[in-house]
## 1
Amino acid sequence: MIAEINILIVATVLLLLYAAWSDFRLWKIPNAIVLALIAVYALHAALRLLTAEDLGTALFSASGIAGDIGAGLLLFTLGFGLWSFKLFGAGDAKLFLPIGLFIGWHGMLPFAVFLLIGGIAVVTILKLPMPLQLAHLSVVMRLEEIRTTRKIPYGVIMVAAALAVMGLRPGFA
């Protein structure tokens, strides 16, 4: 059972990192990644139910599956609202659903704090001048393009915040 959970954790981290990389490179988060993350969460939830001592708590508590689904739906609703006002991309809004599933209800406040820290860090990085010695690097060129277009790949910040919260969540591992 431990091996299966470790495989799910690795799959989750890799899928989230791919979503962040895709958003950074192309300003797009593929639907397949979002669906794969939801499928991995479903497998994780099934394993939690199979090993639960108290099914009611595993299903309906704020730290159980109901709390995870509540967090996912709340974040998705927030993302949809931001998207409808053209403040957010559709991929970012969709990515909020699986992120909410993985961070859970009790991870919402730390997630918001890490989002704030990540947002401030990105704004600071984009305001700083890039050293000329690094101008030939593809990452620096991409940062310059992001700076010029003023389109922020929010998925990168969201994934970083989610990974930080998941690392702190005792129930995930």
## 2
Amino acid sequence: MHAPVSPEQADLNMEQQLRLVWRRLKKDDAPWLDASAMLRRHGLRPTRQRVVLARLLFARGHRHVTAAVLHDEAMRARIPMSLATVYNTLNHFTEAGLLRRIGISSSITFFDTNTSHHHHFFIEGELGLYDIDASAVNVAQLPVIPDENEVSGVDIVVRLRRTAR
């Protein structure tokens, strides 16, 4: 049995693993490199950038991240890549079905690792995005759908503001 690991130690371990991936560690040397297999299953070539970003995104369970946050995580792990590369990779992951894009405004977009049907709370001023189970929301009626169109989904973002106490 393994001893419990603190969140700080877990982050340090992941940073070390990511640096090894970045330095082209052979796949046989690292059983935790299943990010490559996941990318291949979704039709994506597992480049170093994609593998590293997939590990950052998916190693901690379901998350909501912006491109800037993910870029900062890569930089803290001493994995050099441009913000444009992060955006492009997130868009490729979204197109492949690995992520869901949640547009909050013209300048704020989150990427959600939970691709199941659900909705979100957005806390203004904190850039916090939290899941709402789909069964907790009841949409009574949709507007008339224009001809030659069909509903592909309904995404609800409930915007919250902290009250002063």
